[in-house]
Write a structure and sequence with these properties.
With 729 residues, the protein is mostly beta strands. Among the domains are: 62-140, Immunoglobulins (Immunoglobulin-like); 144-265, Jelly Rolls (Sandwich); 281-423, Jelly Rolls (Sandwich); 662-708. Helix 4 packs antiparallel against helix 5 (686-706).
Length: 729
């Protein structure tokens, strides 16, 4: 099953890539899909369905969507839920603990108290298989109305009430229509919240007058502002740019004052993973640079402003002595804006121009930030810039700030933040669920899953290191605030490396629950020790091919760990003892014990991890049905330095998974009891007894269907090995 899925994805990928330009073009004509449009919508809807099928794993809850996206303070709401592996729901875990929920058919009843904090909250589904990835919701003070799926023509356009937000879901190949009485004296502002609330919608928003004449359209950002509009009722159309729809394609549409509030409060894009990479605080209030102005300042300082339009200039000036060193770092894309910053440091020349104007000589063009340490699975690169500036002489210097995606006309101005500081070596950390090892070399899947631990399981948390101002040393990683039944091993990101892992291990008697943990990085700069807390990131969706579908990744509010007490890990691999010692350049044989549960009897291999030198180490090979294995570690090849190292072995193992097979026995016991009760029932009780028997029969069939074996793989991480490398004699 797994190999056929990968083969299908691999064979179709080139054709789908070739079709994307046509499909992305969508349908441009107002109200007319046509054959091409319908074909594009069908193809993209099929791609969306296909993209939900990824390499089968041991069950992990996947939350696709919560509907509606907006909730009012002081309200009780019926929230619809869609996703996979959402067995035995318990509650929604909100980042605001004052918001409560209880399960109901198809979703949850959610109670938002009047003292809930307005704005964005994160919600995670919790049930039998742990906790899901988060979805963002908007908590508002205004009414949040649900759009019925009937407004798919101009004649069925839905009236937009003043002071209310509309929450709906786009359907594949369909356009949603709305109408609003003419606000001719006030103009019109529209806002579609989609991406900022974890929706997959790429909004194509348009406004028409009563005759059908298009007044404005925005295919990027979901915002329209018209200072003047004609008399008469206006029509508004909304569709996905590629005419996709279904689960995950929700929206929140507002107009007037609510649209202005949403535009100011909701970012136009997901907070990117690269936003975890922040410069250290200056320790004083930022200076505001007015548009088309150069502000004089004294370093160190932080400055804020907006990029100039074409033909304008903006930035700041300062004086420096020869040899003074500063680090300059500009943030814009990391703030959520789609920009391509350029920062040029120039020296004021002593001579003047022909018309008495100041002349400048270029000194430093700040380079782009380093590439993405998260790789293709977790793209965390940024077009923002940072670099070292050493004053070549006593002079006045100008920092010129530009956006190479230059804005003109009435388009929104994008913001920037500039840090000018002394050299401050350090690191920012980002924690992510470690993606399972790739099955084949051309496996381009993204596994959008949360962090969950089964009984006895060890998992690895991926940690990215954004090194700052030339810091290149070791970083010790540790996890704190751990819940009962979970332990962590202290690991290390080696000098010069951009990533590592933190290992969490669950006890055999782990109980169900959710916890927020803290991941710390400790490091030394010269003789000073520092500690920093890691931020958390997430991939929101599983996709089969990152070349076909852009992975949606963003920062999240916390490092959230789900505990699965209902099941044990399919495989547990651990060293016979925890601590080993070997001489530098020598060899050592490490024994491992393997516990197999259920139908995970196949042979598998695990690769050494924890130090970059282990890339050349031998794999741990476990025979079919094997419960013991050894691996030789040759330090002449994997040249670990003298010291104490935490290492482990990781990989994947195939097997057959049965979901709750114990439920079959319980259902059969109830059926037997129901049959016995029916046999003894009198005439007055017979109908109720027959109903009980039928329900028990249905339960047996459902349990047997649920427990049918399915081919899956389990990500396997061994318990850590503490290896002491001592000097050779």
């Amino acid at each position: 099953m797994i190999s056929r899925s990968v083969s299908l994805a691999t064979s179709l990928a080139p054709r789908l890539r070739a079709a994307l330009p046509l499909l992305r073009g969508g349908v441009r004509k107002f109200g007319e899909a046509g054959a091409v449009g319908r074909s594009a919508a069908f193809a993209l809807a099929w791609i969306g369905i296909w993209s939900t099928h990824v390499d089968a794993q041991v069950p992990q809850p996947k939350l696709n969507a919560l509907t509606p996206l907006g909730l009012s303070r002081g309200s009780t709401n019926e929230i619809a839920v869609s996703g996979t592996e959402l067995d035995e729901p318990e509650y929604l875990y909100f980042s605001d603990p004052r918001i409560l929920s209880r399960p109901r058919a198809g979703g949850f009843t959610v109670i938002v108290p009047t003292n809930a904090t307005p704005g964005v909250v994160e919600a995670r589904w919790v049930g039998r298989f742990g906790v899901s990835t988060p979805r963002r919701l908007w908590i508002a003070d205004n009414p949040e109305l649900i759009v019925p799926p009937t407004n798919h023509s101009r004649g069925a356009a839905l009236l937009m009430p003043a002071g209310s937000a509309l929450n709906g879901r786009l359907e594949a190949g369909q356009v949603a229509w709305f109408r609003v009485p003419s606000p001719a004296t006030k103009g019109l502002t529209l806002h579609v919240a989609a991406t900022a609330l974890d929706s997959r919608v790429e909004p194509d928003l348009a406004v028409f007058d009563a005759t059908g004449q298009e007044l404005a359209r925005n295919r990027r950002g979901g915002v329209i502002t018209l200072a003047k509009v004609p008399e008469g009722e206006l029509l508004i159309s909304l569709n996905d740019l590629r005419f996709r729809g279904g689960d995950g394609f929700g929206y929140r549409l507002t107009h007037g004052a609510l649209a202005e509030i949403a535009q100011a409060a909701l970012p136009n894009a997901l907070p990117p993973l690269a936003a975890a990479n922040q410069p250290p605080p200056i320790g004083r209030e930022p200076l505001v640079v007015p548009p088309n102005t150069f502000l004089e300042f004294k370093p160190p300082a932080e400055l804020r402003g907006t990029f100039p339009r074409r033909g304008q200039k903006t930035g700041a000036t300062f004086t420096a002595r020869k040899g003074q060193v500063f680090w300059l770092e500009l943030l814009s894309e990391r703030l959520g804006d789609v920009t391509d910053p350029l920062v040029l440091v120039q020296r004021l020349r002593p001579e003047r121009g022909d018309h008495g104007e100041a002349l400048y000589a270029d000194v430093v063009d700040l380079p782009k930030l380093d590439g993405s340490p998260g790789g293709t699975e977790y793209p965390s690169n940024s077009r923002d810039v940072a670099g070292r500036f050493e004053a070549p002489e006593d002079a006045t210097y100008r920092v010129l700030v530009r956006d190479q995606f230059a804005q003109s006309g009435q388009s929104p101005l994008h913001s920037w933040r500039l840090s000018v500081r002394p050299e401050t070596r350090g690191v920012s950390l980002l924690v992510l669920p470690t993606p399972p090892p790739r099955q084949v070399d051309n496996d381009r899947q993204i596994h959008g899953s949360a962090l969950n631990l089964r009984r006895g399981e060890t998992v690895a948390l991926k940690v990215l290191a954004y090194r700052r101002d030339g810091f290149n040393g070791d970083i010790d990683l540790l996890a704190t605030n751990l819940p009962p039944g979970v332990t962590a091993a202290t690991t290390r990101i080696a000098a010069g490396q951009r990533g590592g892992s933190v290992l969490l291990t669950a006890s055999s008697n782990l109980s169900n629950g959710v916890a927020v943990i803290t991941v710390l990085g400790r490091y030394t700069v010269e003789t000073n020790s520092f500690s920093t807390s890691a931020q958390a990131g997430v991939a929101l969706w599983s996709v089969p091919d990152w070349d076909l579908e852009r992975p949606l990744v963003r920062l999240t509010d916390a490092v959230v760990v789900g505990r699965i007490g209902a099941e044990a890990a399919p495989l547990t691999v651990g060293p016979a003892t925890n601590v080993f010692e070997v001489a530098a350049g020598g060899k050592i044989t490490l024994p491992f014990q393997i516990e197999r549960r259920g139908e995970f009897t196949a042979a598998f291999k695990l690769k050494a991890a924890g130090r970059p030198e282990l890339d050349k180490a031998k794999e741990l090979e476990v025979a079919e049905k094997g419960t013991n294995a050894t691996v030789e570690l040759n330090l002449a090849e994997a040249a670990l330095p003298v010291g104490t190292h935490t290492i482990w072995w990781e990989g994947r193992a195939p097997g057959k998974y049965r979901n709750q097979p114990e439920a079959i026995d319980a259902a059969k016991a109830e059926l037997k009891a129901a049959e016995e009760a029916l046999a003894k029932a009198g005439a007055a009780d017979k109908a109720a007894a027959e109903k009980r028997k039928q329900a028990a029969t249905d339960s047996v069939k459902a349990a047997e269907e649920r427990a049918k074996p399915r081919d899956v793989f389990a990500a396997v991480v061994s318990r850590p090995v503490i290896l002491r490398v001592v000097p050779a004699k």
